[in-house]
């Protein structure tokens, strides 16, 4: 039995693939080092991330897989569900182990599972792009929090860079405790350990711009006017806008009756 541990990065996971082939010892489990429990009956191999080794694995995959399949593999990494590392390894091993194109080989469980995982991540990406709502802070920063089911923040950054290119903004993932900050020129990924009260979807009133409350009320009034009661279909609405996303939406927040 071989347990491989890595730092949690995609480059680190690809380095695990390189080391497994180098050792000719296939992993029975792959875990992030801060979560791994040492095995009593096998070998634990701690693998530090190595950009050169990771790049060699990626270049090898580029010769065997389409751009779409490579994207699906990365999306499976962002999927983060239990066992995703082993799933990625099995897919890569299958790709390296045959001269045939494996992308349509649904007889191999890992191929179908990677495609299904990638679809879930892709769906979550589009929902985050649609449902994120920024609040303007007193220092002219547009700030939003998200807590997606999957780690889609790296995938939605480009959308907001294009849409809000003329303003500073930050999106903070409360579940994974890191965020993206755009300074009008570049976007940087930043790790932040915010206090629990700062991880809420709505910022404290004192931190908001003086006009922010008016903008939210205007959005709520607009939503009321475009919402036609006779055409109200709660089941269809929930299908398109599941309840777990309501915390992001201005039109779903409690009304200010002042």
UniProtKB/TrEMBL annotation:
A Pfam family reported for this protein in Swiss-Prot or TrEMBL: DUF4130
Protein name: TIGR03915 family putative DNA repair protein
Domain of life: Bacteria
Domain spans labelled DUF4130: 84-251
């Amino acid at each position: 039995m071989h347990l491989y541990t890595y730092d949690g990065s995609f480059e680190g996971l690809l380095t695990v693939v390189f080391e497994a082939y180098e050792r000719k010892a296939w992993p029975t489990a792959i875990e992030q080092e801060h979560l791994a429990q040492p095995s009593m009956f096998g070998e634990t191999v701690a693998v530090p991330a190595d950009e050169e080794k990771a790049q060699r694995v990626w270049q090898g995959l580029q010769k065997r897989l389409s751009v779409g399949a490579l994207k699906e593999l990365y999306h499976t990494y962002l999927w983060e569900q239990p066992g995703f590392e082993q799933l990625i390894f099995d897919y890569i091993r299958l790709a390296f182990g045959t001269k045939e194109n494996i992308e349509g080989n649904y007889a191999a469980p890992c191929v179908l599972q990677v495609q299904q995982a990638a679809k879930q991540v892709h769906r979550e990406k589009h929902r985050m792009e649609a449902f994120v709502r920024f609040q303007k802070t007193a220092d002219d920063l547009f700030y939003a929090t998200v807590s997606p089911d999957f780690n889609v923040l790296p995938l939605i950054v480009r959308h907001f860079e294009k849409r809000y290119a003329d303003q500073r903004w930050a999106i903070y993932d409360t579940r994974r405790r890191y965020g993206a900050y755009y300074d009008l020129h570049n976007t940087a990924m930043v790790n932040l350990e915010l206090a629990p009260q700062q991880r809420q979807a709505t910022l404290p009133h004192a931190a908001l711009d003086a006009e922010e409350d008016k903008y939210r009320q205007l959005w709520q009034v607009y939503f009321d006017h475009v919402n036609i009661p006779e055409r109200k279909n709660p089941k269809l609405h929930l299908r398109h806008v599941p309840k777990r996303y309501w915390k992001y939406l201005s039109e779903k927040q409690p009304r200010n009756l002042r």
